[in-house]
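User: Structure tokens for this complex, please. No commentary.
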Amino acid sequence: MSMDKLIEKVVLTKNPTVAGLDPKLEYVPEFIKQRALDKYGNTLKAAAKALLEFNKGLIDELYDIVPAIKPQCAYYEMYGWQGVKTLYKTIEYAKKKGMYVITDGKRNDIGTTMEAYATGHLGKTNVNGNMLHGFAGDCLTVNGYLGTDGIAPLIKVCDKYDKGIFVLVKTSNPSSGELQDKKIDGKTVYEMMGEMCETWGEQLPGKYGYSGVGAVVGATYPEQLKELREKMPHTFFLVPGYGAQGGAAKDVSYAFDKKGLGAIVNSSRGIMCAYQKENCSEEDYAKAARREAIRMRDDIVGAIAQIHLK
Amino acid sequence: MSMDKLIEKVVLTKNPTVAGLDPKLEYVPEFIKQRALDKYGNTLKAAAKALLEFNKGLIDELYDIVPAIKPQCAYYEMYGWQGVKTLYKTIEYAKKKGMYVITDGKRNDIGTTMEAYATGHLGKTNVNGNMLHGFAGDCLTVNGYLGTDGIAPLIKVCDKYDKGIFVLVKTSNPSSGELQDKKIDGKTVYEMMGEMCETWGEQLPGKYGYSGVGAVVGATYPEQLKELREKMPHTFFLVPGYGAQGGAAKDVSYAFDKKGLGAIVNSSRGIMCAYQKENCSEEDYAKAARREAIRMRDDIVGAIAQIHLK
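Assistant:
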């Protein structure tokens, strides 16, 4: 199943991190932004074109050292259908460069509606016999609040097209505990959701021990990361919250197994806006992203090695 | 707040129902579909154009008797960015006809990312000082699994632009109970989510007693509808599951208050595909939808009257 492809890319690049592409116009260097505004005016089209050029520049500098990108749908929808076109083109470009693509949409619904999401993001849509990609991601983040009816249609599509999903289990935000930490018969909601992931995953077994049903577990809760890593041995983790949100390399290292696999750690603004933090020339934004991606990789790989040397 | 506008439209049309626009190419009459395929080939563009024409035809026949439409994002994303362009144009067209628009996206995320969704679907996006609608819906369905961090950014945008949200509380599907019916300190998860809606809603009070934070409660669980109507006196309900999913008019009538307000009931396939059920001419698809919308209205209004005459 699809998580195998991700694991193989992680091993190949020796890098268990993913670059979050959550572009806002304010993150885009002036020279790119101004060119688009000059050409298309103060329009959503101009914004969308600027974001695409920004993303392509980043991908060009990242594709050989970072295994995956994770575009966050919200930042594309913010710029209307024109922004969503940029999402499509970003995915297409990253795939051509050989990257694995995790579409971060946290989609959720039931029955035929969830089937439509699965088809649009992971499968192929039938137009009069022509099978076409809506969006060609390898993996989609989803929300399991609706239960199995919301996940079953995804499993079918993942099985058919060799794709995967990441289900929200324990999110990285401060108020995640309002519901997720509450106890049901002695078990937290996130534990229960984790168990459901293990069960759903049985239908999509992978050759490295991890199923096609992964889980989102935040870097900001290292205790829970450690706990869930033990309780969810077949579930690959997508770990947000490193850097900007406060998660350190030591915190995220608990997400990994003894082989140093089992998780991928995301950084979005840290990588996209590295040029602002470095205070280097704007023309150098993509190279600054590359430097930060390397720093992050070494930081996390080092922390994993430390834990398993103990 | 925005639920006021919806309530006023419900009162004006004497119709507490919403037409779900969840168009798949297979629902579109041959004469519309073939025209688009002839012109644009077997492409996503052709599909998107056909869906738009289908939707416009439905809106033309519904706008004077039905207060709102509810386009389901999944069916548009299934047709790629071209489909999402049709979502934009459908919303624009319905708004021009004076309809209230509930964008059914069940979006969820945190912080700046949730802000991006809120901006894109309910607010306005800043492109070099030009404030533009990504998608111009009046209301967005959302998933509260991430807690207050996921809802607070929406409340800010709703307050600023006079918009509303519907939070998933008790969904209409058979497996909704896997998580939602579980008990936390003697309270079900859906009850807890309902209480959070009441709390979040305090920040968006409405002049008819209902806040800008509504709740999704399925027609297929009439007992829970009755229970939640009592426990959530300030929360307007969006009720899916009437018709195709098995909810009857009597079941949904429990969602309403003594004035016959407090809820809006959705039908999607029932209305969109009425012409298939009627077995009338395909050219007559929109008029068949109108007939079904009237039948549904009378069915539900009748059931509400019966309950409150008792």
